[in-house]
Amino acid sequence: QDHVCSLPKVPFRGAPCSDAAGSQVPYAAIMKQVNSSLSGVLWDEIQKAPFYEYKDSVGQFHQVWFDDPHSISLKAAYVKSRGLRGIGMWNGNSLDYSGEAVAEQQTQAMWQALTP
């Protein structure tokens, strides 16, 4: 089925199915892989988050879900509109701090998106 990726049932802290079945990928790797993926960037309107799909070298299908400046800014705006105290990202050290021009721009955009 298009754009459906079932997670194996891997129990994690009482949940019968969780992201414990997957692995974390640094934002730098995502930004490099997304352009060569099968799908390019896709958008889930319910989660308000981007994702993409690819097949690995043995033909296994994968989905990669991530946040980008647009999805982070929507979440930050929601927090602000509800008068909540703040927002943070899961793992800021997964951004690309290599010093390359594109990486600096992507990293700056992510941090700016946290303050609507």
From TrEMBL:
GO molecular function: chitinase activity
Sorted UniProt keywords: Glycosidase, Hydrolase
Source taxon at top rank: Eukaryota
InterPro entries named in the record: Chitinase_insertion_sf, GH, GH18_Domain-Containing, Glyco_hydro18_cat
Presence of keyword Acetylation: no
PROSITE patterns named among the record's database cross-references: GH18_2
The keyword Hydrolase is annotated on this UniProt entry: yes
Single GO BP term: chitin catabolic process
A GO cellular component entry from the record: extracellular space
Domain GH18: 1-116
Entry protein name: DIAC acetylchitobiase
The organism of origin for this protein: Ploceus nigricollis
